[in-house]
Amino acid sequence: MGQHRKILQIVGYQNSGKTTLMEQLITQATIEGFRVGTIKHHGHGGIPMLESSKDSVRHEKAGASVTAVEGEGTLRMSIHQSNWQLADILAIYASINMDIILIEGYKNEHYPKVVLLRQAEDQSLLQKVTNIVCVLYWPTYPLDQPLDYPAFSIHEKAQYMDFIMKEMRRKS
Predict the structure, then answer these.
(1) Which domains, and CATH codes, for the chain?
(2) For the chain, what is the mean pLDDT?
(3) What phi-psi label fits residue 12: left (phi over 0), alpha (psi between -120 and 50 degrees) or beta?
(4) Pairing mode of beta strands 74-75, 113-117
(5) Which terminus has fewer CB within 10 Å in the chain: N or C?
(6) Left (φ > 0), alpha (ψ -120 to 50) or beta: where does 121 sit?
(7) 3-class SS of residue 131
(8) From which residue to which does the signal peptide run (predicted)?
(9) DSSP letters of 16-68?
(10) Confidence class of residue 159 from pLDDT cuts 50, 70 and 90?
């Protein structure tokens, strides 16, 4: 391990299953011997308080070596400055030996992404984000026509985990 560092974003609207998918990926990557770091964007506004950092605690319990949550200029690792860009956080992570960095949120960044779709309104997300690796959709999402990306039902865990982990193992 350690020869390459993969970055993967997990994006979707609130309650689409991002943190649960992050836990699944962290657990599987850790089982395979990868060292995983996570970054979560606190997208609900405000400074992430300790009690609102529960998702990063879930990341830790799943096996992440390093976790951070960022919101309104506060990086809950706890380093404070006027503003945090994802690139600034990744620069800090560069000094830590990790194989995989999983990012929850930051829809406007351009790293490879898994997009979660729960409702018909979520379709617009596919036009707003770049670099889509695959899509996971809920039964409540009307998959009327094939998508331009590999797509998996949220209930096809074995298939999407295999697909995503193959992507994470690939050399850059």
Answers:
(1) 6-169 (3.40.50.300)
(2) 87
(3) left
(4) unpaired
(5) C
(6) alpha
(7) coil
(8) none
(9) SSHHHHHHHHHHHHHHTT--EEEEEE-TTSSPPPGGGGHHHHHHHHHT-SEEE
(10) very high
